[in-house]
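Residues determine shape. We examine one folded chain.
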Amino acid sequence: MQSVDVAIVGGGMVGLAVACGLQGSGLRVAVLEQRVPEPLAADAPPQLRVSAINAASEKLLTRLGVWQDILSRRACCYHGMEVWDKDSFGHISFDDQSMGYSHLGHIVENSVIHYALWNKAQQSSDITLLAPAELQQVAWGENETFLTLKDGSMLTARLVIGADGANSWLRNKADIPLTFWDYQHHALVATIRTEEPHDAVARQVFHGEGILAFLPLSDPHLCSIVWSLSPEEAQWMQQAGEDEFNRALNIAFDNRLGLCKVESERLVFSLTGRYARQFAAHRLALVGDAAHTIHPLAGQGVNLGFMDAAELIAELKRLHRQGKDIGQYIYLRRYERSRKHSAALMLAGMQGFRDLFSGTNPAKKLLRDIGLKLADTLPGVKPQLIRQAMGLNDLPEWLR
């Protein structure tokens, strides 16, 4: 039976970030992942799942030693953001130079980040990657946790980290209650070719009941879209012929980049907000989507998860240095308090933003248009909004 200090269940982006961050700390780490990730060929078409990596996550990925690897594969640095309300005067725009930054963030395919982190973990003597591996049973002991895998092998760990996604098996087994709400929207994702270059600007338009984001990719004429629509509309858009889809897309987007054409398959997934009532328990800590999921409105989901990872890395290193038991709930409470607060603020902010920007009620439309206009013109508002979006208000000390 193998014994480790930390067993991370789920080798996605956030789970691997925790593993890489614990490298060299003296803690023995195992990562259990169902599939070994494949490297992405340089000439492969863009993957449909992308993330808007903010400055805080960039700092973490730099400290983990993977950021240069990510940039050398495929990433698009964006320098501006535009948000507007269709058919009205509501509009706000940001650019990096006027704010004193070199860039606002990067749009990166999830598979590129994932593979860079996997590669890094593979090179570490402190990290054991178990893949393909699937958990079958978990037993929480007083001093350690016993994990049984599908192939019959066993593992003990002083702390188990649940990084196993939105439908977390571990969270369920630990009987941690979940608050969740259906956003009553589905997200459609696709790759779009634009007639005019995107100029490294991320764009988002609110139209009726929908929200459409164009995220710039490394090809100046390619964007990844996330289109949040009612379930019926999303299904129709997915099944519509290409010409019909392109027509609806161009109308919604106000032809901002000339004629746009879909260049990939169209994927649709339902949007659900989730918030675990506990982010930690005896011998367990939850990170990323296992702890919380938010509306993809601002591309902040993975940034929130990376800050969970950053906070937990710092906390576990501190506990280990002080000779404390890393699996005791009393010591994990500090991580839990900090991250529950950040996630709750983000969830509430996203919900309020979405409520304000959905629907065609004239009074609500006027309110949001005035709000956008004021945010765009009042001194001091934009820098605060940008710092928040870049994650600079929420940095753990070791990343400052």
About this structure: The radius of gyration is 22 Å. The mean pLDDT is 93. The longest helix spans residues 329-357.
